Amino acid sequence: MTANKKTKTALDVQETLKNIEEQFKMFQILNENGEVVNDAAMPDLSDEEFQELMRRMVYTRVLDQRSISLNRQGRLGFYAPTAGQEASQLASHFALEKEDFILPGYRDVPQIIWHGLPLYQAFLFSRGHYVGNQAPEGVHVLSPQIIIGAQIIQATGIALGMKKRGKKAVAVTYTGDGGSSQGDFYEGINFAGAFKAPAIFIVQNNQFAISTPRELQTAASTIAQKAVAAGIPGVLVDGMDPLAVYTAVRDARQRAVNGEGPTLIETMCYRYGPHTMAGDDPTRYRTADTDSEWEKKDPLVRFRRFLESKNLWSKEKEEEVIEQAKEEIKQAIKKADETPQQKVTDLISNMFEELPFNLKEQYEIYKEKESK
Ligand SMILES: Cc1ncc(C[n+]2csc(CCOP(=O)(O)OP(=O)(O)O)c2C)c(N)n1
Ligand SMILES: [Mg+2]
């Protein structure tokens, strides 16, 4: 028998796999030129809602640029750039309600800001300050998760809790293409499927996990198809198309609150910047050609064209949003600067509801030191 001879087997397993994979076609409503290519799926949003979604995306692009500069000036700490992912992030969030719970990854700060986390607290999170992790009462968000995939199991738990309490709300969690390889990911989606937990798992496939390309992440041709093994719906969506992302999440939310269980959504997107500001150099693992190919798909350009064709957007409007963003960022960073520096006693007293004896001891020691 020659090594490369095709093995003849009783079942055509390759054909079965191919048939399944072919089902996962990319859902799109707006093409790269901002033209509607799927009118039947067009969401029923008002003119004001279209404009608000654009406003949030433009604002977030400014926030990204300013955060990068502030980081370079040493005025921010940890920061994971978001440019290129605005449709995946803001349009998915746009389909949610205030009572929904968001469990973000480290790159998903924009969604929790739009869910109600004050901007200065997002800056404090970046600086590792505990106040950045204390969402105001009624703002249903957790702190951005640094441990890849950990938020997925937590989202399933929160979703199940909401279901048991009879809440008509969902838990939404975000991870990346890399996150979809974690054990936590499979455990989370499987458990949510088995218990019909009202969860939405969004995988922002930005093509890289730091420098590891998507092709090395999994043999599966889509991440969306991983839903099949969990027995839940999986959707592959153009993550640079705000209307497609919005619609996929809106439908998933509807199914979840109707008791139909969770959905896995893969948003196909790209991050323009480096992985984080901690020093990686994307030119070592991506080509300028790939970058420019994705820049042509830009969610802001696409949505701007769409809105302009409906006379809903203008250069002046955009300038206004940019100026407002800059001003609010300035105020927020000032407020972050004015927040008292954290002390060791703050760290200890925020860790547990009731301190164990050893921490009580340490608390007293540090309290004494800090009083001097
Ligand atoms: C459990 C765990 N393993 C490894 C890391 C180190 N790490 C940080 S980000 C990252 C890549 C994640 O890529 P992806 O899930 O695609 O998200 P993206 O950064 O592209 O948004 C890795 C491996 C980590 N934070 N946690
Ligand atoms: Mg990634």
UniProtKB/TrEMBL annotation:
GO molecular function: pyruvate dehydrogenase (acetyl-transferring) activity
CDD domains for the chain: TPP_E1_PDC_ADC_BCADC
SUPFAM superfamilies cross-referenced by the UniProt entry: Thiamin diphosphate-binding fold (THDP-binding) (SSF52518)
InterPro entries named among the record's database cross-references: Alpha-ketoacid_DH_E1_comp (IPR050771), DH_E1 (IPR001017), PdhA/BkdA (IPR017596), THDP-binding (IPR029061)
Cross-referenced Pfam families: E1_dh
Domain Dehydrogenase E1 component: 54-344
Reaction it catalyzes: N(6)-[(R)-lipoyl]-L-lysyl-[protein] + pyruvate + H(+) = N(6)-[(R)-S(8)-acetyldihydrolipoyl]-L-lysyl-[protein] + CO2
Sections of the chain in a coiled coil: 315-342
Cofactor: thiamine diphosphate
Root EC class: oxidoreductase
EC number(s) per entry: 1.2.4.1
Keywords: Coiled coil, Oxidoreductase, Pyruvate, Thiamine pyrophosphate
PANTHER family per the UniProt record, alphabetical: 2-OXOISOVALERATE DEHYDROGENASE SUBUNIT ALPHA, MITOCHONDRIAL
Self-association state and partner proteins as the record states: Heterodimer of an alpha and a beta chain.
Protein purpose: The pyruvate dehydrogenase complex catalyzes the overall conversion of pyruvate to acetyl-CoA and CO(2). It contains multiple copies of three enzymatic components: pyruvate dehydrogenase (E1), dihydrolipoamide acetyltransferase (E2) and lipoamide dehydrogenase (E3).
Full protein name: Pyruvate dehydrogenase E1 component subunit alpha
Protein species of origin: Bacillus chungangensis
